[in-house]
Amino acid sequence: MRDLLQFNTRPFMEMLTPDVADRVRAEATISKFTNGQLIQSRGDTRAGLSIIRSGAGQMGVFGEDGTFVMMSVLGPGQTFGEVTLFTDIPRTQDFVAIGPTEIYQLSAARFRALCEDEPGLLETLLSITLARSHFLLDVLDSIRRLPLRERVAKTLYSMDLTAGQHGHIQCRQEDLADMIGISRVSLSKALKDLTALGLIKLGYGSISFPDVEKFRDWVARHCNVAIVS
Q: What's the whole-model pTM score?
């Protein structure tokens, strides 16, 4: 499943020059986790930047009853914990390993020291953070303004954009429902409506767009989206 927080940007480590990426690796420590292990907890005040070296993880929140509501999936080269570098705000999400996962941990002190030598490092992280903020504000606007069917269509468009606009995305319906913050029953109805309109085709763990241009045009007209070519 594609990470919506990536929002059509490359992973952090891929955006760095090879020399800077090597310096980040050299300064960071590596933590290893097994499938299902908690990598970070909501409320953690440890300041630093976390970068996925290998594997993947689910970002979300555990409820009081132990259920996990997923917000996003992050993979190799992507970051989390940025807010702790610049504010006193604790980490706001739980992060759980998907399979064997390794994390580069870069302390706040080491990050600041690296930025003094490599100012482009801070600019790269800022560009990713601003892209995520833009997307989250857009999500908030959709929640307040759009009907459910249009919200789902807009989310699928964003996922396809992040995946490279191939007209085909991999995702499980339960994960998609959790990410959007709706029930699986509500998601199923919205997907059936979009299927009936000929905009999407449901597969096993996937959603495709039979006519990509038709889907993009519908999203532009009904969801107030500036389509990216």
A: 0.74
